Amino acid sequence: MLLGAFALFSNDLAIDLGTANTCVFARGQGIVLSEPSILALNTTTDRIEAVGSEAKAMVGRTPAGITAIKPMRDGVIADFDAAEKMLGYFIRKAHGRRRWVRPRVVIGVPSEITQVERRAVKDSAHRARASEVFLVEEGMAAAIGAGLPITEACGNMIVDIGGGTTDIAVISLAGIVYSRSVRVAGNAMDDAIAHYVKREKNLLIGERTAEQVKIELGSAAPLSGRREMEVKGRHVVEGKPMTVILNDGEVREALEDPIRQIIQAVRGGLEQTPPELAADICDRGIVLSGGGALLRNLDERLRLETGVPVQVAEDPLSSVVLGAGKMLSDFDLLRKISLE
Fold it and tell me: Could you report the per-residue pLDDT of 71-124, keeping only the tens digit for each?
């Protein structure tokens, strides 16, 4: 059932409430907001100083009365009050700061989210002035956003590598046949780089620097040419500022453990898939989405390790929110696949 003429003027939103980034899709407008899932709070006045990109610029640089908070951890809410404030800010910003708006909201969540964690997400959205809240598994939303034919009688496998979780799903006839969420993704890669640099180079670096190293040098399989970059931080023993040179081979070594865990989870999913659907996946391949899908040569490494064709979604960063956004136009499908 498509919604009637009223829907053209509705305030419905789809939200990918990610550990690293939050994307908001407004019905009839497309993606209206994509910002880091961070807010800076004044601990003295309890006032929000900044949210999103402005708050991210403050990470590791805040003075004594201001704290940069990441309300999401491993794809779920870790700080209820901060999540509510952040969600309310993003909903108001998506609606041009109109305070009277009470939208219906679709939110993507990890597949292995607990009942308590589901309730926390729903409560935060309701307190942020949502009128109705629907939760959908990120794997399903990513598959719809990536354009997979989820309603057909064939196997589709999606691997959504976000900031906090990697969601793996096998979908057929608009239902999830297999799903798994592992709490190893982009943030675990950043941590692995920071630990490697500390251990091998005696250099302490912040999370923003580790993320930058991943973007500049990160890869899952050898690159065609050597890459290097200067990395600045603080010496572990001497405590003074210091610069070291990192190359792509060192970063690949640092990333090996989280990449291996993701590959093992994908292989586990293939082993659990019924034979007929596994045959479909052999023909159609695996689709990668999420920010982690942008890691160089990850598709090639996954193809070598599984023997199955692998392709990256057209817009991997936005697959979940685009899929959730499409459901705003098809409430029959939404009610069929939303979590209770």
Answer: 998 888 888 888 888 988 888 888 876 666 688 899 999 888 889 889 988 998
CA angle (197, 202, 205) in 5-degree steps: 50
Q: Are residues 170 and 221 in the same domain?
A: no
The type of residue at 20 is: A
The stretch 317-330 carries a mean pLDDT of: 93
The pTM for the full model equals 0.89
Same domain, 68 and 112: yes
Same domain flag for 331 and 232: no
pLDDT digits (tens, 9 = 90+) for 142-183: 999 999 999 999 999 999 999 999 999 999 999 999 999 999
The answer on 163 and 65 residing in a single domain is: no
Print the domain residue range for 14. Answer: 5-140+319-337
What is the CB-side half-sphere exposure of residue 300 using CA atoms within 13 A?
8
| CB contact set of 191 (below 8 Å; sequence gap of 6+) | 207, 210
User: Could you tell me where the beta strands, DSSP code E, fall in the chain?
Assistant: 13-17, 21-26, 30-36, 39-42, 47-51, 66-69, 72-73, 76-77, 104-109, 132-137, 156-161, 166-172, 175-182, 203-204, 228-235, 241-247, 286-289, 310-312
Q: Are residues 177 and 282 in the same domain?
A: yes
Query: What tokens appear for 188 in the block?
Result: 């675990």
Counted domains in the chain: 3
Identify the sign of the CA torsion 42, 43, 48, 54. Answer: positive
Q: CA torsion sign, 328 to 330 to 331 to 333?
A: negative
Indicate whether 16 and 70 sit together in one domain: yes
Which one, of 111, 157, 113, lies nearest residue 337 by Cα? Answer: 111
**Domain containing residue 306: CATH number:** 3.30.420.40
Contact between 158 and 181 (Cβ < 8 Å): no
